[in-house]
Design brief:
The protein is an alpha+beta fold and 335 residues long. It has a single domain, classed as Beta-lactamase. The chain has twelve helices and twelve strands. The strands form two sheets. Strands 1, 2, 3, 7, 8, 9, 10, 11 and 12 form a nine-stranded antiparallel beta sheet that branches. The longest helix is centred in the middle third of the chain and has 16 residues. It starts with a strand and ends with a strand.
């Protein structure tokens, strides 16, 4: 069952607790550390994006449309819709000859609170390109065109694209496609549920080239190289995924998923992890990741110092006075 992962305090009182599960696996697929339920079933959400992005390379779609490394990285991202993100998504759509209207996702302002509020204040209309999943959708449309599939209603689970991507995710997760529970994601496309253990296994397979063969190995390496070269496309300046990849110089690849999911692995390393926050609180994820890394000696001292502001979050009042603190408070069991 889930365990307490994070506590927030105000003066001497523990005001809130956040439960969840963490699992870390080693190269042979064994669980070597955990807290909570390693086999908790949840939706992988946007943490599956890098797995799906490998299809663009392996099928030849990325080369056929001359996608840049930045454009490949944005297909992996849950971005904030900043100008550089809009340019990258727009670049893909221009290359494949489709307009913003071809995307089936809804219009948005930004995943980033400040940018969202500023656009609303400035009366900037919501756009599909501002949506955090627009890079993924642009990649899906590119794949449809390259494979000769109809782009109409590509979001439907029966569409050949979605069947294809479901199998790809299953391959990385080492699970039968039929065992994956299908739901609908916030952006309207199918989303995949499976045990946390299999999510961690997927990231181990993605980040360790000796687990893959031939074209899939090259595809994974190109996707990871793109994320490492353009970490700002994975999230946005100041956001955790971007800073984790940047501060570790691409050695560690991490990707969040909505409602409390996080997956990460070390490139050519010996570990991978998956996290689920039980109540879906996204704000506590960085503290949990940093705590797990610290316990398992994943980060160097310099890396830890560069990321330490994610480990402890000050709680402030309307006067910007620090009145509390949110901090991870768990210890993983070693196996």
């Amino acid at each position: 069952m889930a365990e307490i992962l994070v506590r927030s305090t105000r003066n001497l009182i523990v005001e809130n607790i956040y439960r969840g599960s963490v699992v870390m696996i080693s190269g042979d697929g064994r669980i070597n550390a955990y807290c909570g339920d390693s086999y908790h079933i949840s939706y992988m959400r946007s943490a599956a994006k890098p797995l799906m992005a490998t299809a663009l390379v392996e099928t030849g779609a990325a080369d056929a449309f001359a996608l840049s490394a930045a454009e490949l990285a944005i297909t992996c991202g849950s971005h904030i819709g900043a100008p550089e993100h809009v340019a990258a998504v727009g670049g893909i759509m221009q290359k494949i000859g489709l307009t913003e209207d071809a995307m089936t996702l809804g219009a948005d302002y930004s995943l980033d609170t400040k940018l969202r509020e500023q656009r609303i204040y400035d009366h900037v209309p919501a756009r599909k390109f501002f949506h955090n999943c627009s890079g993924k959708h642009a990649g899906m449309l590119a794949l449809c065109l390259h494979m000769g599939w109809d782009t109409a209603e590509y979001q439907q689970r029966e569409h050949p694209l979605q069947q294809f991507l479901r199998q790809r995710v299953a391959d990385f997760c080492a699970i039968h496609a039929e065992e994956i529970i299908i739901g609908v994601d916030g952006c309207g496309v199918p989303v995949y549920a499976m045990p946390l253990y299999n999510m961690a296994l997927a990231y181990y397979n993605l980040c360790n080239s000796d687990q893959l063969a031939g074209a899939r190995r090259e595809a994974a390496e190109r996707v990871l190289d793109a994320m490492a070269a353009y970490p700002q496309m994975v999230a946005g300046e100041g956001h955790f995924c971007t800073e984790l990849i940047r501060r570790t110089e691409g050695r560690v690849i991490g990707k969040l998923g909505a409602d409390g999911i996080y997956c990460a692995a070390e490139r050519e390393g010996k570990w991978a992890l998956a996290i689920k926050i039980e109540d879906g609180n996204m704000a506590v994820i960085p503290a949990v990741v940093i705590r797990a890394f610290r316990q398992m000696n994943i980060l160097s001292e310099d890396e830890h110092q560069a990321l330490r502001h994610f480990a402890v979050r000050d709680i402030k009042n309307c006067r910007e006075e620090v009145v509390g603190r949110m901090k991870a408070a768990f210890h993983m069991e070693l196996v």
